[in-house]
Design goal:
5 strands; about 25% strand; alpha/beta; Nucleotidyltransferase, domain 5; about 140 residues; 5 helices
Length: about 140
């Protein structure tokens, strides 16, 4: 058996009201990479479950937005509802992960890479999903 059987991929999800960013870990569970952006719709949970299935992800990490004071607002409730809907459509483990400041961090990284606001629009959701997934991966050590 090869090293790819040691871990399984993980899918990162940055849920938004208009778009949902997806990121995918490498086979070793060390690095998160942008995957794609979905249009938010009533089918979003099924689309996320399908993306996990296609990529062989056994874990789905969905960003849970928190206010800076640690409280949860309406966006967090939407993430919880999405997570539950995804759970009903997949055998993958679904985890909610604190995503405070991920979009801000992703925006800063894209600006540092020379992307202007207009260029960022298409990739900011994926970059935020990468940040969510990378934070989770870093918190796991090397196992997914």
């Amino acid at each position: 058996m090869g090293i790819m059987n040691i871990t399984a991929r993980a899918l990162g999800v940055d849920p938004g009201s208009a778009r949902i960013g997806l990121a995918l870990s490498d086979e070793l569970g060390c690095m998160a990479h942008p995957l794609r952006t979905l249009k938010a719709s009533p089918e979003s949970a099924a689309d996320i479950a399908a993306a996990a299935e296609e990529s062989g992800s056994r874990t789905i990490v969905i960003g849970l937005p928190r206010n800076m004071n640690g409280t949860y607002g309406p966006a967090a409730e939407k993430s919880r509802v999405l997570a539950e809907a995804v759970r009903q459509r997949t055998s993958a483990k679904v985890i909610l992960w604190d995503e405070r400041l991920t979009t801000a961090a992703a925006t800063k990284r894209l600006q540092e890479a020379g992307r202007n606001s207009r260029e960022q629009r298409g990739v900011i959701d994926q970059a935020a999903a990468v940040q969510i997934l990378q934070d989770w991966l870093d918190g796991q050590g090397m196992s997914v």
